[in-house]
Amino acid sequence: MNTTEPIDILDVIESISSTEWRKRTGRIVSYLEGPQFITVDQSHIPPTVHFRFEIEDPRVVALLQEAVQSYEGLIPWAMVGRQRELLSGTNWVICPKRMIEVKALAEQSRITAAQYLAATDPSFGPVAHDDLIGLTAHIERLIDARRSE
């Protein structure tokens, strides 16, 4: 298991188009509880990457979708968009494709797909966290290749 934090995939995305909102789940989470910081290993929960562009360029979206779909790593990944209600813009998520596949099962249990996978296949999360490093590098290579064209 790789416990180092690699180049953040959100920084790679930001390098091609500014985002107005972004977040991702991490392997290690720290939070303040009372007067002290608590650190928790969340590697059993598969990673997700969420973002919204300031100005959405269809060419950038297509490039990212191509990069995610063409990645041949340890697991398949997906990039899915959801139009915001009442506001403009699309919220995008990059996640293990398996999370999309188990979403309906998870909803039956009133939990998220990430929680479902953590409970039913705890070895999947660490593999997905490790593979996010490869996906990030793949996206970065594809962006660099397109810039040099």
Structure description:
With 149 residues, the chain is an alpha+beta fold. It has one domain (9-147). The protein has six helices and six strands; from the N terminus they run αββββαββαααα. The chain has a four-stranded antiparallel β-sheet with strand order 1-4-6-5. Strands 2-3 form a two-stranded antiparallel ribbon. Helix 2 (58-70) packs across helix 6 (124-147). The chain is globular, with a radius of gyration of 16 Å. It starts with 8 loop residues before the first helix and ends with a helix. The model is unreliable at 1-5 (pLDDT under 50).
Oligomer: single chain
Overall number of domains = 1
User: Cα distance, first to last residue?
Assistant: 36 Å
Helix proportion: 40-55%
Order of secondary-structure elements: HEEEEHEEHHHH
Mean pLDDT: 93
Radius of gyration using CA atoms only? 16 Å
Number of strands: 6
What's a quick, concise take on this entry?
With 149 residues, the protein is an alpha+beta fold.
Which properties best describe this structure?
42% helix, two-stranded antiparallel sheet, four-stranded antiparallel sheet, disordered N terminus, 149 residues, single chain, alpha+beta
Helix-strand layout with pairing:
Blueprint: H1 9-14, E1 19-24, E2 28-33, E3 36-41, E4 49-53, H2 58-70, E5 77-83, E6 90-96, H3 97-101, H4 103-108, H5 113-120, H6 124-147
Antiparallel strand pairs: 1-4, 2-3, 4-6, 5-6
Helix pairs in contact: 2-6
